[in-house]
Amino acid sequence: MIVEWGAFFQVLLATLIGACGVVTLYALGLRLIDSDDVRPLRRAAGIVCLVLCGLVILYGVYLVIPFFHQG
Known about the structure:
By secondary structure, this protein is mostly helical. It has helices at residues 5-33, 40-64.
């Protein structure tokens, strides 16, 4: 059994960046929405962060479930 280390590290790096990105978007969205100073622009930016987080998660589910890839 031969392990392709280059591909392994590519997957590792993509996973770390993706997971950190989703967590960062979620935390930033909560921080912008739940602050004491709720300005409309700040609230809108928080909602955008949470929507982007949700879209990234839905895209990941799309990639994992093979039913969506059948053509």
